[in-house]
Write a structure and sequence with these properties.
Number of strands: 11
CATH class of the largest domain: Alpha Beta
Number of domains: 2
Order of helices and strands: HEHHEEEHEHEEHEHEEE
Mean pLDDT: 83
Strand order of the largest sheet: 5-6-7-10-9-8
Helix content: 10-25%
Structural class: alpha+beta
Radius of gyration: 23 Å
Largest sheet: 6 strands, antiparallel
Shape: elongated
Amino acid sequence: MVVSDSPIPLYLQIEEELRGLVQSGELGPLARVPSEAELSTSFKVSRMTARKALDRLVADGLMFRRAGKGTFVAQPKIAHGPSQLLSWSAAMDAQGVRHSTKVLGAGIVAAPTNIARDLRLTPGGQVVLVRRLRLINDEPAAIHLSFVPIRYSSILQGDLTGSLTELMIAAGARVTFTNDTIESVLARGETTRLLHVASGAALVFINGVAYAQDMEPVRHSEALYRGDRFRFRVDTTGAPDLRMEHKPDEAGTP
C-alpha cells in the first residue's frame, strides 16, 4: 500500500511495491504486470503516477513492454565473466541454468587477415571455424565463433555442442591466458533472426585471443550476447590496466 502523506513520492512507493512482488516470486519471469489503469485503481493514484513507476522499472530492465499487450516481468539476467577463458558450459552449469548449443557451422576455412594475424599464421592459412548458437531455456542468448589453428582440427571429430575447451585440451591446446575486448553493438542482419531480437537491439560483443602457457595463440573467439539476458562481472587483482582505445567511425575516419 502507498502512503499519501509520506515524504517518498507515490511513484517510488509503487515501484518498490512492484519490485518486491518480483523479488518474492509473486510476479515471476514473463508474468503480466497490472496495467496503468489497474495500478491507478488499486493504489488510488493518477495514471500518470502509475505510468512513471512502470517506466522506471522498464528502464531498469526489471520489466519490458510489448506493444498492444502490456508490461511483463523480464527474465533474470545471467551473471557471466567477459573473459573468453571461461567455459560457457561450465559457467552456465555452475549457476544451474538450463542451456543447450546448436552448431551453426563447423569446418576448415581460409583465415581472414585479422584472424591470421592474431593466430600468427601465414595470410590465407587454414583454420578451423566453429560457429555456434547458445540457448538458455530453449531461447537464443548468444552467438559464439571460434577460429582454431588447423593443427587442432581433431576437435571437428568431437561433440561441438559440448565444451570446446575440453575438446581443445584433448587436442593438446590448454588455454591459460586470454586477451579480450568488450564493447556494445547493435543487432543487424542475420543476427536479429538468430537471437530473436529487433534490429538495433543492444548486444554485447566480446572478442579476443586465447594463449597456451608458452604464449602460443591457440584460439581467436568472437561472441555476441543479448544485452537483455546478461550482466558481466569483472574481477580484478592488483592495479587494473586502464587504457583508452580510439575507435574509428565506420568509414575508418580517425
